[in-house]
Write a structure and sequence with these properties.
Elements (H helix, E strand, L loop, with lengths): L9 E4 L11 H13 L4 E3 L8 H10 L8 E6 L11 H15 L6 E5 L8 H13 L5 E4 L3 H9 L4 E5 L6 H12 L3 E5 L15 H15 L11 H11 L4 E4 L4 H11 L6
Parallel strand pairs: 1-2, 1-8, 2-3, 3-4, 4-5, 5-6, 6-7, 7-8
Helix pairs in contact: 1-2, 3-4, 8-9
Bound molecules: NADP nicotinamide-adenine-dinucleotide phosphate (NAP).
The site of NADP nicotinamide-adenine-dinucleotide phosphate (NAP) has 25 residues, from helix 7, helix 8, strand 8 and helix 9.
């Protein structure tokens, strides 16, 4: 279980539109600083997002803050160009490069990015736990949605899992999250607003165009997002009230949505 004052119950995802053309660097960095001002101090990113661009933006935005004010989660295993490699050497090279890009000294939580159960290999686990003992990685975990999370829970070495938390979850997924928490792992929820209904945003921003392109890609590849009857804020409330997760990471490109999400999370404003 993660015990860290900076592990806020609402996190900010520095991914998607924050990793490239969806938003300018300066806008992403300004939103990250606004998030800190709203009491959001958990940030999630990864080297695969924009080939390191998202991590660079996060590092730049946080560089003037005391390191212990924020909790940084990044990933390894899916690398630049979506190349997949969970070998111990590749994972070590990846997180060291992430630390370098963000200039953050250490990673608060390193998540293996969607490994198969077989990729949770004892050699990899030994390498990660050795770096955790040295403090370069404060915590280790697995990001996924199926059997790989069962394996991660059973191994008894991980501190956290990251997984979808929304009202479309089936009973088996809910039971898995409950089992993880009973086993002492922290659960970080994602896809909280997946399929949540939203009103059209006008005028369209660069971020909206990025989302529209993603929807088109999902339609073309036959992987449409889940549908939910809840709107985004009700979906967030539902996820907090569900008690399935210790923290929820949301993605937003809008100050007003960030502020609304922080209010729902009950975070105190830090001025
Ligand atoms: N999905 C994955 O496969 C995955 C995998 C690994 C990690 N993650 C982590 O999870 C984070 C969240 O991503 P997600 O895919 O799970 O998306 P999400 O947070 O469930 O939903 C993001 C969408 O919700 C909208 N939104 C946010 N707050 C809103 C509000 N108050 N009112 C109305 N709309 C609102 C955003 O639009 P606006 O920009 O207009 O606010 C955006 O379109 C990622 O950034 C990443 O850190 C996700």
């Amino acid at each position: 279980m993660i015990q860290d004052a900076a592990f806020s119950r609402l996190g900010f995802g520095v991914t998607g539109p924050h990793a490239g053309l969806g938003l300018s660097r300066s806008r992403t960095e300004a939103l990250i600083r606004e998030a800190v001002g709203q009491g959001v101090t958990l940030f999630d990113t990864g080297p695969a997002y924009g080939n390191g661009e998202a991590e660079k933006r996060l590092g730049q935005a946080l560089k003037t803050l005391p390191r212990d004010r924020v909790f940084i989660t990044t990933k390894a295993g899916i690398h630049a160009g979506r190349k997949r490699d969970f070998s111990p050497g590749a994972v070590e090279m990846s997180f060291k490069a992430s630390i370098e890009r963000m200039g953050c000294g250490h990673i608060d939580l390193l998540l293996l990015h969607g490994p198969s159960p077989e990729e949770l290999d004892p050699r990899l686990i030994r390498r990660l736990t050795a770096f955790r003992e040295r403090g370069l990685l404060r915590h280790i975990g697995v990001c996924g949605r199926g059997a790989e999370l069962d394996t991660a829970i059973d191994l008894g070495v991980f501190d956290a899992i990251m997984a979808p938390v929304n009202d479309g979850l089936d009973d088996a997924s809910r039971a898995r999250l409950a089992r993880a928490r009973q086993a002492g792992l922290s659960v970080i929820g994602i896809e909280v607003m997946a399929g949540a209904s939203s009103t059209a945003n006008l005028p369209l921003s660069r971020g909206d165009l990025w989302y529209a392109a993603r929807r088109l890609k999902q339609a073309l590849t036959g992987t449409p997002p889940a549908e939910s009857a809840l709107n985004a804020l009700d979906a967030l409330k539902w996820a907090f009230d569900s008690g399935l997760a210790d923290a929820l990471v949301c993605l937003t490109t809008r100050s007003r949505n960030l502020a609304a999400n922080a209010r729902i999370a009950g975070l105190a404003e830090h001025t």
